[in-house]
Specification:
It is built from 5 helices and no strands. By secondary structure, it is mainly α. It is globular and about 35 Å long. Bound molecules: protoporphyrin IX containing FE. Protoporphyrin IX containing FE binds next to α2 and α3.
């Protein structure tokens, strides 16, 4: 990809929460960074901002544990089995 997507943990330390919110909501013109505003409520975007802000001091084990407990509000209908109502954070990031 060009320009290269940033390393989120590094980016999180340099940007303010307001800047991250704006970027996630509106995307970045002339790059592949999509705007999440049209498909996500502000409250959901703030959740993403909180996650990005946490990344620099998150240990791999904590990330893993979070993946296991994360719930997918409203989007998990139709899922079955032990993973019902839970979502893979990576999956969420890739959407
Ligand atoms: C907060 C700072 C962030 C910055 C500065 C940033 C910037 C960028 C840039 C420069 C690209 C690649 C552009 C290209 O190759 O054309 C990109 C791609 C992407 N970003 Fe971000 N991003 C940020 C956060 C996020 C977050 C939090 C998410 C997820 C919620 C996200 C989701 C994506 C996705 C899915 C793509 C790839 C789009 C595609 O081509 O399929 N970004 N971003």
């Amino acid at each position: 990809m060009s320009p290269r997507p940033p390393k989120l943990a590094e980016e999180a330390e340099e940007l303010s929460t307001a800047e991250i919110f704006w970027i996630v909501k509106h995307g970045i013109k002339m790059t592949g960074m999509p705007a999440w505003g049209p498909t996500h409520k502000d409250a959901e975007i703030w959740d993403i901002v909180a996650f990005v802000k946490k990344l620099p001091d998150m240990k791999p084990a904590e990330y893993k544990a979070m993946k296991l407990t994360a719930t997918d509000e409203g989007e998990a209908e139709g899922r079955q089995g032990p993973a019902a109502g839970k979502i893979d954070v990576e999956e969420k990031l890739q959407r």
